[in-house]
Specification:
CATH architecture of the largest domain: 3-Layer(aba) Sandwich
CATH superfamily of the largest domain: Response regulator
Distance between the termini: 25 Å
Radius of gyration: 19 Å
CATH topology of the largest domain: Rossmann fold
Structural class: alpha/beta
Strand order of the largest sheet: 2-3-4-7-6-5
Largest sheet: 6 strands, antiparallel, barrel
Length: about 250
């Protein structure tokens, strides 16, 4: 996007999920900002200026997917975050998509409470490895404390226990190991989604098999983190899907 886009279409900082319908594997990126003319997308994909891109924007729990077509106008590093990415200009999108983006930007600028960050979050962690479960729970709590946020983490060691906890509690995010006793994590995710809950963000975790990303996506997860993982990578996935800042302003 050039200078004309910056002048005509003011940008609004917002984190949206970016998915590529033609991708053969579970590839997901995230926006840094949005205007009615285009967006900046954090990505490790090699996209040269002039490359056409088909993609889908969404916000788990708030925004139905918006299918868009665009062209890469520039590639580089976002000065605010130092993350690599590309500037994409929207091309050929219909009036309905344009209206939905404009409505979203208006809601944000007017202070719509749905887009104002909360300070307290409840997370359900389904993990049968007790040591890893304690590590993840403690990491989320400590991360929240460093950002003046509060994370309340419930831990389930099997899928049936996780289902019971969900019946009695509302969670902002689910972190799910795909392979757990009694009821597997993948079947737990399927039951969550088949029960009509397509809103709660779900991060699947697992490792050891090449097809696990596809298993996670088919079950209904929003993101996948492979084991062994760095704790900060899992926290980054949680904070991104919850649209939380990774660092202090």
């Amino acid at each position: 996007m050039g200078d004309s886009d910056r002048r005509v279409f003011p940008r609004t900082p917002i984190t949206l999920l970016v998915e590529y319908p033609d991708a053969s594997e579970m590839v997901q990126d995230y926006t840094a900002n949005l205007s009615v003319g285009g967006t900046f997308v954090y990505t490790d994909k090699e996209l040269a200026p002039g490359t056409p891109v088909d993609f889908v924007l969404s916000f788990p729990g708030l925004l139905r997917p918006i299918e868009l077509t665009g062209v890469v106008r520039w590639a580089g590093t976002d000065p605010a975050s130092e993350h690599r990415g590309v500037g994409i200009e929207f091309t050929g999108f219909d009036d309905i998509a344009r209206h939905r983006i404009a409505s979203l930007l208006k809601a944000i600028s007017s202070g719509d409470r749905r887009f104002i960050s909360k300070t307290e979050y409840r997370v359900l962690l389904l993990e049968d490895n007790d040591h890893l479960a304690r590590l993840v729970a403690r990491g989320l709590v400590q991360f929240g404390q460093s950002r003046e946020l509060m994370f309340d983490v419930d831990v389930a060691s099997d899928g049936e226990q996780a289902l019971r906890l969900r019946e009695d509690n509302d969670y902002d995010a689910l972190v799910v190991d795909l392979y757990t006793p009694v009821l597997s994590g993948s079947d737990f995710i399927k039951q969550v989604r088949s029960g009509g809950d397509g809103k709660v963000p779900i991060i699947a975790i697992s490792g050891g098999r090449s097809d696990e990303r596809e298993i996670a996506r088919a079950a209904g997860s929003d993101a996948f983190v492979a084991k062994p993982f760095r704790l900060r990578d899992l926290i980054a996935a949680v904070t991104t899907l919850l649209a939380l800042p990774e660092t202090r302003d």
